[in-house]
Specification:
The chain is an alpha/beta fold and 324 residues long. The protein is 40% helix and 18% strand. It has eleven helices and 16 strands.
Length: 324
């Protein structure tokens, strides 16, 4: 079993340290808002739904340690600007009379919502579906169960025998390190491939669909996700394959009309210039390390949420979901 990605324990925020996977399953604790912010920035915890819980627990931590809540909220929001769930979790806890109770409710609800999302998405997969996914949108990206991997997991639990192609996901290798580890724990067949392999796999008829998660969904259905997702959507369209996005309703940002308004995080160039302790780019050469890209709604076959599957046109469908 995969333990909760994040939880409150004895006055601290306890998280799976995702920097250490797959070599070892260990935990890191944050006793202060500063420590939690560093865990978020350094990717000890990552994934939009998990960051929603982290944001709420951060407000609870501030309340418990005497840090002014508006100051803590601003620091937490600034750690990962693209993931709208982070700000959503912060705002939910700020508005609550008991921030800790609010954070714990968000964590509990996350798992239940992801199970519902998975069930909706599993209905879209044929028996023995061969699914390509990118980055990690599983239990590690949530409090538990997962979004994109939750769909695959639900199909597996229903006896549908899916298998997964996991793109390695440069530069931090979330696909190779995290998605492969999760699926191995769950007994779901997985093969890790270099990101550049996707096109030839599609051309050879070895992929039935693509499923990714999301860090923010604009009102018109444009989707920000790990950089490389846009390219996969273009390839899927060229090869006539469905491109599904799995994300909870909390990831939909109706205040953002389209993808042009989504803030895109630029991370430290050193992440892309090194693999482990080894530098792979000559010193003095510029490196661009944009963390996310935006897939236009026109390339998205459907958006899978806990409240159902939304298909184009996305604007009315997403608006209806967020009102319900």
């Amino acid at each position: 079993m995969i333990p909760p990605t994040i939880e409150w324990r004895q006055g601290k925020v306890r998280m799976i340290d995702q920097r250490r996977l797959p070599e070892s399953l260990v935990f890191v604790e944050a006793a202060t808002v500063d420590e939690l912010c560093e865990a978020i920035r350094s990717l000890a915890i990552r994934g939009a739904p998990a960051l929603g819980a982290a944001g709420a627990f951060g407000v609870a931590l501030a309340a418990a340690t005497g840090v002014p809540l508006p100051e803590a909220a601003a620091r937490l929001r600034a750690t990962r600007p693209t993931a709208v769930n982070l700000a959503w979790g912060v705002d939910r806890a700020l508005a609550a009379s008991d921030p800790l109770a609010s954070a714990q409710a968000i964590a509990r609800d996350d798992v239940e919502r992801n199970r519902r999302l998975g069930a909706h998405g599993a209905a879209l997969l044929a028996d023995q579906a061969r699914v390509l996914t990118h980055c990690n949108a599983g239990a590690l990206a949530c409090v538990g169960y997962g979004t994109a991997l939750g769909v695959i997991r639900a199909a597996h639990e229903a006896g549908r025998r899916p298998s997964v192609w996991a793109g390695e996901t440069r530069p931090v290798l979330q696909g190779a390190r995290l998605t492969a580890w999760e699926l191995q724990q769950l007994g779901i067949p997985v093969t890790v491939v270099p990101d550049a392999r996707a096109a030839s796999l599609m051309a050879a008829g070895q992929i039935d669909c693509v499923i990714v998660g999301a860090d923010r969904v604009a009102a018109n259905g444009d989707v920000a996700n790990k950089v490389g997702s846009y390219g996969l959507a273009v390839l899927a369209a060229h090869h006539g394959l469905p491109f599904y996005v799995a994300a909870p309703v909390a990831t939909v940002d109706l205040g953002c009309p389209d993808g042009a308004g989504i803030p895109i995080e630029q991370r430290d160039p050193e992440e892309a210039a090194t693999i482990g302790d080894r530098r792979i780019v000559p010193r003095g050469v510029a490196v661009d390390n944009q963390a996310f890209d935006v897939t236009p709604a026109s390339l998205v076959t459907a958006i899978i949420t806990e409240d159902g599957v939304v298909r184009p046109p996305y604007l009315p469908g997403l608006a209806q979901l967020t009102r319900s």
